[in-house]
Amino acid sequence: MDDDFDMPPADSMNDDFNFGGDLETPVLKVGEEKEIGQQGLKKKLLKEGEGWNTPEVGDEVQVHYTGTLLDGTKFDSSRDRGTPFGFTLGQGQVIKGWDQGIVTMKKGENALFTIPAELAYGESGSPPTIPPNATLQFDVELLSWTSVKDICKDGGLFKKIVTEGEKWENPKDLDEVLVNYEARLEDGTLVAKSDGVEFTVEDGYFCPALSKAVKTMKKGEKVILSVKPQYGFGEKGKPAHGDEGAVPPNASLEITLELVSWKTVSDVTDDKKVIKKILKEGEGYERPNEGAVVKLKVIGKLQDGTLFLKKGHDDEGELFEFKTDEEQVIDGLDRAVLTMKKGEVALLTIAPEYGFGSSESQQELAVVPSNSTLYYEVELVSFEKEKESWDMNTPEKIEGAGNKKEEGNALFKAGKYAKASKRYEKAVKFIEYDTSFSVEEKKSSKTLKVACNLNNAACKLKLKDYKQAEKLCTKVLELESTNVKALYRRAQAYIQLADLDLAEIDIKKALELDPDNREVKLEYKTLKEKMKEYNKKQAKFYGNMFNKLHKLDSLDNNKAESKDAQPMNVDSKA
């Protein structure tokens, strides 16, 4: 027996190995055997493993094994040596049958693999212990593995997990992370070390590898990073500075990195003009809805630190209370509170567009100048959600829909079309499902649906959302096929969408129903002008196209005539 036998790979057997695809982890009972893949590899389960996780390509695994020929002859055993065998999965460090088989195992699992020669040592064998074309059997126990990830999928940045983190969340670009790290050159020279460094993920710190790695980590996770130059300091390297040592050009690094914690930072409005940083996580999963009554502790400051609002922080202090989505506070604060949980404490940075805008505003403790960026510290003490439709009985649904419609009308008249649209949508949701309504209730429900969808279509036209306007009018026409307003507004949408034929159909039908309708007549005039303009453009387009084709034909004819007129070349030898 060769004591140094360490499962060398068969020559060229791993060159075309492809993990995934048709290799599925077989579900086995103890004592059961199944084939893995379609190349003759078999697995028999000897002992169940723990949990559900299995190692992946690139992971560093530790196993005990015993290898035998089919006649029972033992040719190697890590158990006999008393030392587990370690290798990296999917890197061609072992025979192909091992790479394919061990990815199906769980921690602590014991299995017997029967490996055909094609997935072992092939025609040549491995003299003197393994003959040519030998089928082998390996009794393998998967002791453990260290997860190794190719973070950027280009071989430039590998992450080996030393300590598993908590939960499942990872930091995002805007989040502020707190890390400990230590960076060394490949020869072990310390380059940099720091405990308790805080930075924004998208801004990065030290070298690009840190920000890329932390986005894959969980709270409390500790890793070792293998960093190629493109994710370190590249071709130029880095000179020594302060406590940090020099990094030579094109140097690889090894960085030990621990993600201690992070503060979640979110872009509330998706334009980076209302940013929320969570200082303290809230309770549960519930958040206020639109129309909820919220109670806050709040401090409002300007960029220079001037305090303009403070509520709920004194012992007897009255909490700051308002109803969401009712324009009782600035838009940025209103929107941010809708993303918070009870007990959550957050810092808000609000740009002027979502604050007091270009107007000066007198607040409780100071004047807020025009175009001021605002800074709030907010704690959501409690909230009472507005009743949802599923919590209402039928009369409440109809009343609620009517109230939302009136709110929408008021907002429309004030020119606040987006807010008005939301009110009409909410009104329709209250009465969307009316199968259990009485005949009278269905009648009221239909009237409200028609009015709200028509009014919402008017909002969408103002907001230039013509596709939605068309859909809303179609909903109305499904309820009332002769509704002139729906035909008129749908025609307006069609005109803007350049569906002129459909617009004409709707306008003609509207005029059949209401021949004296002035607005429809004016829209028909607009449509005719659009059609005339469109026809002119089409005529010009096709005219130009035919002219070009005619010129091309003329050129071809001229070339042909010119070719015919050429004298034949005379052979001087004739």
From TrEMBL:
<feature type="domain" description="PPIase FKBP-type">
    <location>
        <begin position="291"/>
        <end position="384"/>
    </location>
</feature>
<feature type="domain" description="PPIase FKBP-type">
    <location>
        <begin position="174"/>
        <end position="263"/>
    </location>
</feature>
<comment type="similarity">
    <text>Belongs to the FKBP-type PPIase family.</text>
</comment>
<dbReference type="GO" id="GO:0070370">
    <property type="term" value="P:cellular heat acclimation"/>
</dbReference>
<dbReference type="GO" id="GO:0005516">
    <property type="term" value="F:calmodulin binding"/>
</dbReference>
<keyword id="KW-0112">Calmodulin-binding</keyword>
<feature type="region of interest" description="Disordered">
    <location>
        <begin position="1"/>
        <end position="20"/>
    </location>
</feature>
<dbReference type="InterPro" id="IPR050754">
    <property type="entry name" value="FKBP4/5/8-like"/>
</dbReference>
<dbReference type="InterPro" id="IPR046357">
    <property type="entry name" value="PPIase_dom_sf"/>
</dbReference>
<protein>
    <recommendedName>
        <fullName>peptidylprolyl isomerase</fullName>
        <ecNumber>5.2.1.8</ecNumber>
    </recommendedName>
</protein>
<dbReference type="GO" id="GO:0003755">
    <property type="term" value="F:peptidyl-prolyl cis-trans isomerase activity"/>
</dbReference>
<dbReference type="Pfam" id="PF00515">
    <property type="entry name" value="TPR_1"/>
</dbReference>
<feature type="domain" description="PPIase FKBP-type">
    <location>
        <begin position="58"/>
        <end position="146"/>
    </location>
</feature>
<keyword id="KW-0697">Rotamase</keyword>
<dbReference type="Pfam" id="PF00254">
    <property type="entry name" value="FKBP_C"/>
</dbReference>
<dbReference type="InterPro" id="IPR011990">
    <property type="entry name" value="TPR-like_helical_dom_sf"/>
</dbReference>
<keyword id="KW-0677">Repeat</keyword>
<keyword id="KW-0413">Isomerase</keyword>
<feature type="repeat" description="TPR">
    <location>
        <begin position="484"/>
        <end position="517"/>
    </location>
</feature>
<dbReference type="InterPro" id="IPR019734">
    <property type="entry name" value="TPR_rpt"/>
</dbReference>
<dbReference type="InterPro" id="IPR001179">
    <property type="entry name" value="PPIase_FKBP_dom"/>
</dbReference>
<keyword id="KW-0802">TPR repeat</keyword>
